[in-house]
Every structure is written in structure tokens, then in C-alpha cells.
Automatic annotation (TrEMBL):
The record marks 17 as: Transition state stabilizer. CDD domains: DHQase_II. It catalyses: 3-dehydroquinate = 3-dehydroshikimate + H2O. This is 3-dehydroquinate dehydratase. Substrate binds at residues 71, 77, 84, 98-99, 108. Belongs to the type-II 3-dehydroquinase family. GO terms for biological process: amino acid biosynthetic process; aromatic amino acid family biosynthetic process; chorismate biosynthetic process; quinate catabolic process. The active site is at residues 22, 97. It comes from Geovibrio thiophilus. The gene is aroQ.
Amino acid sequence: MKLLIINGPNLNMLGRRESAHYGTLTLTDINTKLIERADGRAELEFFQSNHEGAITDRIQLSSGFDGIIINAGAYTHTSIAIRDALLAVKVPFVEVHLSNVYAREDFRHKSYLSDIARGVIAGFGWMSYALALEFFMSEPK
Ligand code: DQA
């Protein structure tokens, strides 16, 4: 099984960014933990960009993947382009967030991805990604 893990804007700043919301691990730390948890059961490819178009381009090239785990960061709340790319490729995806976006500002309660996602996981820090990974690895084919 091949999974694509996409991180959007400012997630390259993890470890230096609002630790009360996002914890102290860097994105590299999180990716390392996911590789450990996959333990050879899934091949993981990682992509991070601060640019909406680059994320859209990467999604367009994802048709060979069994699933996508995406934390689109702030683009979650704004991006019709990322939504449309996910609809176009039809690869099942799980929307993840480190923080519980529903316990934060109102503008974070709106997601352009949730209604087309296989599922949504928010508020568990790096474990949000791990739970999404567990889902894909245990889902019957
Ligand atoms: C986030 C939540 C978003 O609202 C925010 O813009 C982020 C990170 C999260 O992982 O909690 O950049 O997606």
C-alpha cells in the first residue's frame, strides 16, 4: 500500500510554531514516527508546501496512491482549488489537524475538504496522522 502524506502552509515551522496548539515535534520528527508506525506495512511519501498551486499539482499526480493523508493547514479553510484536485483524482483521503480546530476561532470551523473526505481527525497532535495511517493500513480492500 502506498500513501501520500501532504502538509500545507506553515507546517514546515512545526517545533517553532505555537506549541500550545501544535506541540513541540518538528515535521521531520512526525514523519519519522509515521515511518516507524508503518513498520513496512505501507510505503509513505511525504510532501510539504506553503503554496496552494504546488499542493494542487502534487494532488493531480497522486492517482497511483491508495490513500492521501492531508493536513492542508490554513488552506483547509479557504481552498476550492485543493478541494477540486482531490475530487478530480478520486484517491480516498483523510483530513487531519494537529489541533482541535473546533475548539478554536470560528474561521477554523469551516473546511472545504471535510464533506468529501473519507474521515476527519483533529486534535490529537501528531497522533492525528498516526490514526489516519492506522485507518488506511487496517481498511479491508
Ligand atoms: C491546522 C489547523 C489550521 O487551522 C491552521 O491554519 C494550521 C494547522 C492543524 O493542524 O491544527 O496551519 O491544520
